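S1.2 Input.
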Amino acid sequence: MQTAACKSAITYLDGENGILRYRGYPIEQLAEKSTYLEVAYLLLNGELPNSTQLATWKDEVTHHTYIHENMRKRFVDGFHYDAHPMGMFVSSLAALGTFYNDAKDIEDKASRDKQILRMVAKTPTLAAMAYRFSAGLPFVYPDNDLSFPGNFLNMMWKVGDYHIDPRLERAMDVLFILHADHEQNCGTTAMRVVGSSHADPYTSAAAAASALYGPLHGGANEAVVRMLEDIGSIENVPAFIEEVKSGKGSRLMGFGHRVYKNYDPRATIIKKTAYDVFEVTGKNPLLDIALKLEETALSDPYFADRKLYPNVDFYSGLIYQAMGFPVSMFTVLFAIPRTVGWLAHWQELLADKDQKISRPRQWYTGVEARDYAPIAAR
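S1.3 Output.
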């Protein structure tokens, strides 16, 4: 009997053996040799683009990076000055659909393709806008002469004469690739559930982003950074590990995964990327604690027997922090690349003629039938 919620040809995940593939391609090869926009094309279309297709795709994305001025000047300015960037991102993503009257024409493939293009192109703009607003900084318009990650970094950090270090630009691209999709997680399931009602993709993606906003889904790398800060020094690692094992409150964040019972393949790539970033930014002072924590945990039978290995979140927060991103932006950085994964699943959902509107069964645990009693008799 098959109990899977859906059929999908997008991402293959073997948690027992630590394998992750996008459309059949190992994540290790894509992270080493590809770019985020090429991977985005792959996820959406099922095949890697040839040179002409890739050039066209890049050009189309580049020419859709701007957002409507009313979105920036009226909608965003309505947020409180200390609004959380992820809350702003979720709201802005939903509102974006109101600027396009054809957004609900989901039966029209040309319209679907246009919405997908718009969302892939504009999510970095929305993300950077949310950060600049929360920091009290003026908005930076997209620079279409830059690469996808380069444009995002420029919109984030440009004050005066700003130059992007190519090593940080590449690191951002790799992080985007690693977070582009991960099969049927909470956010992707939310995208499919809302999308099954034939809601427009902006609304559906906002639902997925809302799921990601929850700390159990998108907040793990933030929790890792806070854990490392609380540990304070490598000398405190053994005591922390013993406290985790005792079950007296402390938890080992960034280890273990609902699916992976082996080393998360993305974690290996991110660890290498961290060293590349630190060559530019200087070593994050929390790195030594993280390395000692990883070494201690992996050599302890308690964690090995429970198949608890580092996951993608263990080092990603250290990279973001070293690059200057505040902790409040970590989930937004997750949402930018994951948007294309959500859209690939939304597109696949609509093409599946066997897929109906989502209506899960429940297991009722309430009281049996009873009669209404007048208030005086209660």
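S1.4 Remarks. The chain has two domains: 11-217+329-351, 220-322.
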